Structures are given as C-alpha cells and as structure tokens.
Amino acid sequence: MSSILAIAVSFTLVLYALAMALALSRVLRGPSAQDRVLALDFIYVVAMLVMLVLAIRYASSMYFDAALLMALFGFVGSAAMAKFLLRGEVIE
Amino acid sequence: MIGLLVAALLLASGVLVLVAAIGLLRLPDFFQRMHAPAIASTLAAWSVALASIVHFSVLEGRASLQAWLIVVLLAITAPVTTLLLARAALFRRRLANDAPPPHPGRR
Description:
The structure holds 2 protein chains of 2 kinds.
Chain A: H1 3-29, H2 33-58, H3 62-87
Helix pairs in contact in A: 1-2, 2-3
Chain B: H1 2-26, H2 30-33, H3 36-60, H4 66-95
C-alpha cells in the first residue's frame, strides 16, 4: 500500500466522519420526524462507504459482507420508519 | 499509478459525501433536503466501488467485483426509501393542515 493511498484513505475517513457529524446534528435538531429518518438513512449510507474504504485500508474482502449487510438493514430500517410515519404501525 | 487513481476516487467520494451532508444541513425545506443524500448514494458510492474494484483487481490479479453488488443493491433500494419518505412527509404535512410544498418551478 503506497503512502499516497494511505494518506488518501485517512483523509477520506476524516471527511466521512465530518459528514456523519453534520448529519447527526440534523438528526438531533431536525424540525420534523421525517428529517430525522432522512438523516439516519444518510448516516447508514456513509457508514457503508466507511466499510468499503476500510476494505481497501486493510486489504481484506471481509468488509464487503459487512457493507452488504449494512446496505440491506439500512434499507429495511428506513422503509420501516417511513411506513411507521405513514400509517402509525409497521405491519398491518 | 494505480494507487494515484484509487486515491483520487476516494478523495472525490469524501468531498461528495461532505457536500451531501452540508446540503442536508443547510437547505431550507424538507422536500429540498431530500435531494442531498442522493449524492452520497449514487456518485459517492459509485466512485468508492470503482476505487475498490480497481484496487482489489490489481492486488489479486483477477477481476474482483464484489463492490459492484453493493452499488446495484443501493441503486435498487435508495429510490424506494426516498419514495416512501416523500409520501410520508406529504401525508403528515396534509394531516397538520400545513400548506402543500411550493411548485419546484416557481418561487
């Protein structure tokens, strides 16, 4: 792993952390419930991207499975929360 | 050389995700804020997936396409989430007797 790539990986992770902090402030502040769900979904996507970057950092393809699971469960969670906002219950 | 390409793709995705987060924070209305996370789940995810495909293909000496699966999954699920959330937001806004969102073309 070249040093340029190592620096780029660290810098990218810092940018991701900054973006997640901004989205977290939207979760805490968000005027309505749907704002919070939107920001949580964004945080899920960014965490999945962090997994992909960590796969490059540690040169291990194990992280792909983690990223796939995070994408799946992020979708299920966001869809369930949106359904809850729409109907007041998840399964009817 | 390959490392430089991978580094550039990673940095591009980091900047794009940050732009999406700033959009999520700064845009005034919920229906405008819904546009911001799409940057992260399309262009940023594509560039990270391309970076990891290039990196692992060079590292292992064979085509390594697992990251492609994640991007395809994201392309299927992100519109569904957005659609459900938009419907929920419209429903809740109507329930609160609030004004409907302004037409996107006019100000």
